[in-house]
Amino acid sequence: MKLILLGPPGAGKGTQAANIIETFNIPHISTGDIFRKNIKEGTELGKKAKDFMDRGELVPDTLVVEIVEDRLKAEDCKAGFLLDGFPRTVFQAEALDKVLEKMGSALDRVINVIVDPDLLVERAVGRRICRDCGSTYHIKHNPPKVEGVCDKCSGELYQRSDDNADTVTNRIRVYMDETSPLIEYYQAKEKLINVDGQQDIDKVFDDILKAIGRTQ
Ligand code: AP5
Ligand code: ZN
Predict the structure, then answer these.
(1) How far away, in angstroms, is 156 Cα from ligand 2 center?
(2) Which terminus of the chain is less hemmed in, N or C, by CB atoms within 10 Å?
(3) Complex ipTM
């Protein structure tokens, strides 16, 4: 299964990605996670990406496309993959089409997670992430059993530096301007499926499976 998860910041892409990759046994390719890992490790790529991410702006297309192209060539992507947070511009989507064409491959579905913009800031600001295993929680909607501690691995939970109200607001604006045109782009290619992201996390996942044509 070759899938893209599309949706604004805080829509629940990362949350649903965890379920999808387990069910379909495919690798999770999150460009945001790749950049955060590079920032943590102090690489050149991380240094280039950091300022853009802290401001809630997009990292330049040329940097992103190269990374994804390299990743998709890996052996574990042959049978399928889940792209999360990529593509984010029409330029990136066109570049992805060319990469897949070169590989003799094609997308199956683009899952568009729809959430009212008014809910997104609260979702992102309340998010907490496990330092050790990357599991995502929400202080109100999906709290861990013990505050600040991951249920799965007992790791410490932290808040992303771009999850403050001002930066999230800018990320939503950037999404509307630069990324939302991809909804039409993939609709025209008859790849798009729309999912209501304002339901319980499990119900959103059920709807994704139904839309893909598979049950658990
Ligand atoms: P990235 O890491 O991709 O972040 P994002 O797209 O802004 O998305 P988020 O991770 O904020 O949200 P999500 O939809 O995954 O929500 P989650 O599941 O965590 O990008 C970060 C930055 O990197 C960008 O700003 C940019 O600078 C750069 N970047 C990355 N890719 C790029 C690219 N391709 N090109 C250029 N730049 C790029 O859920 C959010 C919260 O809500 C959680 O707390 C969760 O528990 C809760 N929640 C989830 N589902 C539900 C539900 N159904 N009900 C209630 N609460 C829920
Ligand atoms: Zn953990």
Answers:
(1) 7
(2) C
(3) 0.96
Within a domain: residue 86? yes
- Ligand 2: centre distance to CA 36 (Å): 17
171 C-alpha to ligand 2 centroid (Å)? 26
Peptide bond between residue 143 and the one before it cis (omega within 30 degrees of 0): no
Q: Are residues 99 and 190 in the same domain?
A: yes
Which residues have a catalytic role annotated? 13, 88, 127, 160, 171
Give CA–CA dist 120/191, Å, rounded. 25
**Do 100 and 158 belong together in one domain?**
no
What would the pLDDT profile of 3-47 be if each residue is shown by its tens digit?
999 999 999 999 999 999 999 999 999 999 999 999 999 999 999
| Nearest C-alpha neighbor of 119 from the set 141, 92, 135, 89 | 141
Within a domain: 157:
yes
Provide the domain limits for residue 76: 2-115+165-211
What's the number of domains the chain is made of? 2
CATH of the domain at 50: 3.40.50.300
Ligand 1 pocket test, pick from 72, 111, 123 with the greatest ligand atom count within 8 Å of Cβ, gives 123
**Closest atom of ligand 1 to CA, residue 31:** 31
